[in-house]
Amino acid sequence: MRGPGRPRSDQARDAILDAAFQLLEENGLERFTIEGVAARSGTAKTTIYRWWPGKGALAMEALLAHAELTVPIPHTASAVSDLRTVLDGIARSFAGATGRVVASIVLAGQNDPPTLKVYHDKVVEPRRQRLRDIIERGKRNGEFRPDLHVETLVEAMYGALYTRLLIRFSPLDEPGWMDRHINQLLEGALPRPLCGQGAK
Amino acid sequence: MRGPGRPRSDQARDAILDAAFQLLEENGLERFTIEGVAARSGTAKTTIYRWWPGKGALAMEALLAHAELTVPIPHTASAVSDLRTVLDGIARSFAGATGRVVASIVLAGQNDPPTLKVYHDKVVEPRRQRLRDIIERGKRNGEFRPDLHVETLVEAMYGALYTRLLIRFSPLDEPGWMDRHINQLLEGALPRPLCGQGAK
DNA sequence: CGACAAACGAAACGCTGTGTAGCGTTTCAT
DNA sequence: ATGAAACGCTACACAGCGTTTCGTTTGTCG
Fold this sequence. Notes:
2 copies of one chain form a homodimer.
Chain A: H1 10-27, H2 34-41, H3 45-51, H4 55-66, H5 79-95, H6 97-108, H7 113-140, H8 150-166, H9 177-187
Helix pairs in contact in A: 1-2, 1-4, 4-6, 4-7, 5-7, 5-8, 7-8
The structure holds a DNA duplex (30 and 30 nucleotides).
């Protein structure tokens, strides 16, 4: 049931989103221009402005449409192993082209709170929820301390990922890094009391 | 021993850096313009271009010159307490005006690697080193496990700070947050083996 | 088939910011 | 005094944004 008039060209839409994602990959959002998108996509600027309010919104939609932001939903017997699977997936995605685009979007959000909120609601929060679920499960089956503060653990795990993505201390695909990170978060820094054996 | 010619006006230099920092605070780097700096500082655009190659470099220098980036260097008997002091100091600085400017700078760095490197070398690395020193001390005096991986702990502690600053899950000045964060990083997530008392 | 509605592309506008150049002025060392 | 170098000011060419105008195309409905 569509009224009269020429229907929207899905071909133009796709070409625009493709071109936008490519340009974000290549230049980041700093040098991302609507004119550039129009040129590469073979559409007119008018067409873009008809459907998107501005560069922020276009960039966000290009990211959501193209990037592999979906995270695996493992559900094995071991919460620790599931944690590993999820975080590895995110790290891999961040290490590639998607990562650069994400970095652009997030940082652009600094001066464009609505855009940041969309990213938060559509990407960050679902992922955090997934981690929360896994950790809660781990608490129930005794893998984790019952008094563990879930939010804090989630934040620590995520924090390092985003920090490596944005500040680039060290590469996201450094071998062995994620294992060390997870293990240490789980085991803590304090010395184990000397009883029986060492813990683990 | 200065050659001939009119010496550089420190007054102009200071006015430019002051104005730049103010404008970064107010608008972020997205809307940070050389023209704006010139107008507010009462100098000419040409003067700015004479001394800085572009907005990124100017913003960085304004940040380094103005922000209270100095972190306290506590050295009490307790490494844990020193850790707390340092991280609290950074959190407070990030929660204020400096935080917004830092976010802007990191953003600029995404497409301007030299700028990011300067920030890394001048700000990030010294702070990380300070944390490393404290943790090493804690290892030596038995507060921490001897096999603790220092880098991983530093990254986890820093990560949450930058993530709150940039992604804004939650406010940096949330009461009690930093204590929970530190405690849990130190104590880990795994259940303590049941011997004598609980650890800590 | 014809009328209409809506999307499309091309071109241009005013605006803002960039980065450079020229010019006269000011301040210092020699 | 002279010259070097920094200063402020004005002007300019250029790029990108966001918007508007206009003519064209593509569909639906009567």
